[in-house]
Each structure stands twice: as C-alpha cells, then as structure tokens.
What we know:
Elements: E1 3-7, E2 10-13, E3 18-25, E4 33-39, E5 46-52, E6 58-60, E7 68-73, E8 78-83, E9 92-99, E10 114-115, E11 119-124
Amino acid sequence: QVQLVESGGGSVQAGGSLKLSCAASGYGYSGSCVGWFRQAPGKEREGVAAIALSSGFTAYAGSVKGRFTISQDNAKRTVYLQMNSLKPEDTAMYSCAAGITSGMTMLGPASYNYWGQGTQVTVSS
C-alpha cells in the first residue's frame, strides 16, 4: 500500500521559513518523481516543485524559484521542501505526490498517482 505523509506545515510571518517533509512507504522509489503541490481556497491546485528521484533533476514554478528548494534523502525515503522568504500569497494546503513523469509534466498534477493528505502553510503579513 502506497502511503505519503507530509509534515512541517504551520504559521509563520512573511519573510520566515518552513521545511516540509514527505515520507514515502510502499512505493517503488527509483525511477519516479515526487512533487509538491499547493492549493489555496478558491484556486486551482498548482505545482510548486518536483524532483526526479533517480537523477535528482528538479523543476520549480516561477513563483517560488530562488525561494524554495526541493531535496531528497533516499535512505529515509523522504523528500523535503525548504521554503524561505515566505510571502502571504504562499498560504495554501501543501501536498506531496508521487508518480512516473519527467520533464515538462513534472509540475502537472495529472502526472501523479499517489497523494498525501496535505499540510497547511499560513503566512501572515
């Protein structure tokens, strides 16, 4: 049974930092991608960052490039999202997902089969 569990969300002031974790179990880790997505109330889900687990190739949305960093710890089967210089517009439910994808589709939610339950990030001004 595939399971993805996020942690690390919370409330911070603008300019602050948070580090999200996505722990995977029951999933063929190699040759896969893990992505972080967010959805704010009334808005569509958007891809934030993704990493190809075998090659380490990463992709970022333009709105977070230079502020967010996705990384992995293969031994712990965990993918992290370090979020710095947070802005109020980063407020959303953040979810991680796993799937077989690459290149231009890495930030597309439709490319992913397995999803975690999400963790809330709230940034106040």
